[in-house]
Design a protein that fits this description.
single chain; alpha/beta; Rossmann fold; 31% helix; binds zinc ion
Length: 316
Amino acid sequence: MHPYQESVGTCNACGSNQQRVRHHMPAGFYAHHAYTTYPWDGAQQASLTIVQCVDCGLIFQNPRFKAEQLGLLYTDRVEEHIDKEKEVSRHKFKPLLDLIQQHVKSAEASPVSMDIGTRYGLLPEVLRRMGFDAHGIEYNPLCVDVAARSGFVNVHQGTVDNLHAVMNQIGKERIQLVTMTDVIEHLLDPMADLRALSMFQQAGDHMVIQTVDAGSWGYRLFGKWWYHLHAQHTYYFDETMLRRYFHELGYDITAVLKVRRMNNLTILGKVWREFKQHQRDRIRLNSGAEQAKKKWFAEGRPTLFDIITVVARKRS
Ligand SMILES: [Zn+2]
């Protein structure tokens, strides 16, 4: 094991310590002289192993980077200024917003929403325009500063661990709608975070969670080469696991949105050709035969836009 990695003892969903290895990529799977790799292994030549709980089926990374070393995996650039109206006009949340409009009903005039890992607060900004008293929490203080400078309101610095402080600060006790887009797969203890959030919800309140779909055609077809397998992603959920997870928390899944199979099929040919090229390139570049400009490790790694979004409703 790499010194920056540690073993995950038990399953986050069921507590079992029985796991089997699904994929193992040895250190140097993408050679550093040939590839830029930081979300893959933190540029540390660490191995990546994806396991599955024998008892409940949860898929996760084990070992994984220690919390204090996670910064190595998150080196993306922060914008200096965001053109708020431009971003609002070209956001990609339409399917998510349609889902919320159809399935999230609230008796209150302006229900509180809280977006976890909100980055610059774009989703809360859009939800505000739909009538929510919308807030977001973002871990990276640089993003929070940029959000404030760019006119986004209610972007609070912190994590779910700071939730009590944030709720005190905004003078609210209840969150009618929790949103997480592309966040749950990065968490170190998603069950604990969801549980902490659920403490601020009442019967009939909702969580809307969007994540990469481990039950997708993309993952089934491409296995260890799937675009979304890398060190930033600690947990991989499918519909069955999300239903189990939320049942455990006292919620029912009331709606599920996935990419339609037709949409997958139309791009499959192109994705397949790029993928085969990617495999050939990796052998050639890893061998050191060619000292070209470094490639991005994920270039040509296949995805069929394998995303799942669920609406979970708290039981009475
Ligand atoms: Zn389990």
